[in-house]
Amino acid sequence: MEEGTVLLDWIFETSVAKYPQNIAIESSQQAFTYKEVDEMANQLAGWLQRQGVQPEAKVVIWLPRSPEVYIAMLAVLKAGGAYIPLDPELPVARVNFILKDSDAKVLISSERFLRQIEAQPEATTMFLFDSDVDKLTSFSTQKPIVGNRNGKDLCYIIYTSGSSGEPKGVLLEHRNVVNYIKAAKQIYDVDENQRILQGFSVAFDASVEEIWMAFASGATLVVGTFDIMRSGDRFASVLNNLGITFLSCAPTLLSMVKEDIPSLKTLIFGGEVCSPDIAHRWCRKSRTVFNTYGPTEAAVIATYSVLQPDVPVTIGKQLPGYSVYIVDENLQPVGAGVEGEIIIGGESVARGYLHRDDLTKAKFIETDRFDYKNQRYYHTGDLAKYADDGNIVFLGRSDAQVKVRGFRVELTEIEGLLMKFNGVQAAAVALNIETQQLAAYTVMQNNEEPDRETIAKLLRIKLPYYMIPATLDVVPELPMTSSQKIDRKRLPLPQTPLTFSSESEIKEPVTDLEKAMVEVMSRNFGRDDISMSDHFFNDLGGHSLLAAVIVSEMRQNTMFENMSVVDIYKHPVLSDLAGELEKKKPRAATQHMKKKRDIYTPPKWKYFTCVFAQGVSMFFLLLLFGIEWLGPFFVYSYYYQADNGVFDSLATMLWMYFALLPILSCFAIGFKWAVIGKIKPGKYKMWSSYYFRFWIVDKVINICPVTYFTGTSIMNAFLRMLGAKIGKNVYINTSAISVFDLLEVGDNASICTDTHLRGYTIADGYLYIGKITVEKDCFVGTRCCLAPDTRMEANSSIEDLTLVSEGTVIPVNEHWGGSPAEKIYENKVQSSRKLWSFRNSFLFFVSIFIIPLITMLAYFPGLMLITHLDYISEHYHFLWTTIGVGFSFVVLLTLIIVFLKWSMLGNIKEGKYPVNSFFYYKKWFFDQLMKLSLQVIGTLYTTLYLQIWFKMLGVKMGKRVEISTVEFISPDLLETGNECFLADSVSVGASHVRNGYITIAKARIGNRTFVGNSAVVSPGTRLGDDVLVGVLSKMNPENLPAADGTSWFGSPAVFLPKRDINHEFSAERTYKPTRKLFVQRYVIEFFRVVLPSTLFITCAALITNVVSYLQVEKSLWELFLVFPFLYLGAAILGTLVTALLKWIVIGKYKPARKPLWSNYVWRSELITGIYENFLVLFFLNLLTGTPFIKYPLRLLGCKIGKRVCMFTTQITEFDLVRMGDDVTVNDNCTLQTHLFEDRVMKMSYVDIADKCSVGGMSVVLYDSKMETNSVLHPLSVLMKSETLPADTEFVGAPAKSI
């Protein structure tokens, strides 16, 4: 076997190995797991092998819609053979022709089915599922061994209509179909949680898409029984009740379905031309709708487009691995707007036609003129042209082939049969586009009348139901083109039913119900001669789709509102149907009322009382916050100015520093119990006394250096003292915890970094507080969010970037993922080793004091210099030294971190290490240093200087890389290609801790790959070249490594087939800047790196300068009381300076597009750096949750309404943020007014109307709107140009309506 060969049955077997207990096939009351299906197929394969089935041998499958169809298919493949699927409604004469033409070894069917249709197929060997199943018991449930298989073996044969009057078999090899499946998995969002309807006839190759998208993903294939497919107006509710998430169908099927199917996430149109009305009616923000095109000869489909409202419908562009061109008669590619024929090349092009070498030679060519390599192409005979954007516009057939409800029909085959009847001189058949019915036309000899009954009878014997014309009209002559071909466009409108007789008597409708029914029938059939004695199918030429259309229209009349399409099947004669409908007349109507949300607006007195309390408490918070980072320097300055000498002053300063951390921690614990006591679940009004107490306790605890405790045994002890119930051997690497008394974590549980366990959310004017329970042996990945009132039961787990929504319970042993979370698979029972050793706990304790001290080592020499200069100078000349001190601080801290990294860790190797090992301690220490760097020198990130530092740390970095505020990296394990872009807050390779081990692995980012804001690149992720991973997105492991040129969005990320790619700016301004641009950027970014720390140090120096004057008259304790007022003054000054710089350097932000390598972008990033790394850290973080935060933001340009409650500062282009009254923006969410896709800064407005709520960790992208009273839940994304309607709630990435 050739290296790299993959066979179709292997794909199924891979899913069996991964998901043995997943339901593979479901039908009515039956359900079979992957393991069960595999074992049954293996037994049948053994039996087939004994009958001589081997590679290239054919087996016909003729069964009703049932699980046995797919088991038979798999069995044939496992035996090495090729299957031929037939429609259960196929005439026996056509079945016999196929058996003979294909020289099939075996026919697989069922005795009951053959008895029902009274058929006697001419097959020498048959396997009947219902009567022969006992024959299989002696065969092994293991797969039989088949030698000498390869990808060029025949896989299946699809018989399509043939121009010779007989059907022709298209030969598909394993490699053809496998190539298609690989391509389809890149564009469709399919995983093991999907439920896929198998609705197409298995004789139509679109069924391959349904069957193998399920089997290749471990998903459930739901058999589209006749009851389902002919449910008419109930089709939507039937599919929704079945939980169907993936549907592939002909557009006509949904044209008469008026209700939406909310469960449907992926909808694929194919098989016939898709009208704009149908396409756009089914588009939803929570659903991806595809329009596809492709012939059987190219393995299902070859092109696709993603449909969007108000965008013209096209068949898009080629699938990955396919080559699609539009050519003229000389096989030359045509330009945009020029009509030509579609040809298809690539690995999916079929072998050819069975026993039709002449046709194979005519339709399949081999050439190297397109891809400069010899490749086979298929002449489709379809006409198309390129749109201006490169998408393909389908124009129709160049020959006499059409698609009827998904089936390909050669009109000449029907015409050839008509020509065999006596008296028929010429015949033509056309497709009526409006009714999707075939219309036949004959020219009769000597003006004879055709024998309609004989013609209809023979056509029903010879042809499948979808090929039987609904009408037959006699015409004097057939219109012809200049090339002497039938001009089907000029054929008259069809008039006469196939079985019409001029001698038959029309039975007129009598009752009101009958008249109303016939009126609808007449309109849809385009006839005014309908009789109550007519048979809907035989006389009128109706079909299942038209039945559904008519039922849907009839139900608009109240007398028919209880009607079902099943009524037409049960009572096809119109008089009988009318009698049934008389019984079903409705008796009464029901009304539905919409539940209204409880939205609270506080009275003014309550609001202002809370605001006053917050204002007073702000001085208390400023004292605590200022002392935490400035206290030691404050003490040093005081004692030095008092002539105590350098060494005595340093000794006093260090004493205070080492005492400060435990004092603040103990104070925070005592403060919590004194102010709020035990936090209780409930619904509390905003701006109430309880909200104030909850807010101030949260602030005090966050001032405490709790972030240094994360990932250590100290964190567990600290949380227990705050009231949390923390079990034994627990790992918690997050500080985003607020409702301590309501947090319960069981033994051996593991909670990874940046996960939010806040336990509260604010919406609709209320503070909602709820319990969070993480039971024993649970695992919580990176950057997850557990909402209030959630529970993870024992040994359950969630992936990175997962939202466990309010009220959700994850059952025992289940693994969930995504936003919102959904089940992925079952966990195995796992054992855990001891996490914490005495040695490591002692090292953690010591290191908690050392890590902040490292910051002091970097900035303290500069501050000492300023103190000394201030001491000897009467003026403020020392302020000029602050920029040098700021520069030295950045340089010293980066060098210290580099030194400690290499001296402690050396070259980090991927692997699995015990948490109680010395390696874990060293890795934890380094991770804390990197977190520290983001806090105090975060402005270095996003600049060219960062690349120098990262390379010093060991990152393998390509050329012209852009890296913003990436988090949790292991430098030696990050490898980036050339010109890639990692946006703000991207988590790259954050290590996982589970069962007592830390796991770290490489992350590889390809050339020109873009990873969006707040995305998570999990350990072991490989992203190819030119890949886009969107905002707040995480790749599904099944899609890794991410293929070159693909785009992904969401959690889990779904494939985005098309996106808006920038072509506006040159490579010089995006990817290939000149040396001059490099120099300019280095200069501007120098100030971005230095100014925030300079302003920080300036404010600190001014505070100590004032203290030096006051200390003459005041004691140290009195100065501490004055300190918050001095800090507030410095903060107000810093706010004014930041605002002034913003208006001078940028002015007013306006919607625009600016290339990365432009002066505007660098100036904007300079202001963002000052805001985020000075103003936010120095002051604004304290103001979150209060109305006071809106004033500095308004000064910067934001439009913020009354009583807004903001727990986030993540705003950049201030003038583009517009918020109404009573808006709530929860913790750590981002109002993202710009993105940097394709290295172009695209900016626009974010509009949030009155009384809206944005959940914690969510991202609201530019050009989006939240209408009044709308809610975006936590860890969700509001996409570009998306609008949340008023009074709605959305959740997820991407956001979906609740």
UniProtKB/TrEMBL annotation:
GO terms for molecular function: phosphopantetheine binding. Residues 508-585 form the Carrier domain. One of its GO terms (cellular component) is cytoplasm. The keyword Transmembrane applies. The chain crosses the membrane at residues 654-676, 842-866, 878-900, 1086-1107, 1119-1146, 1166-1184. One of its GO terms (biological process) is amino acid activation for nonribosomal peptide biosynthetic process. SUPFAM superfamilies: Acetyl-CoA synthetase-like, ACP-like, Trimeric LpxA-like enzymes. Keywords: Membrane, Transmembrane, Transmembrane helix. This is Carrier domain-containing protein.
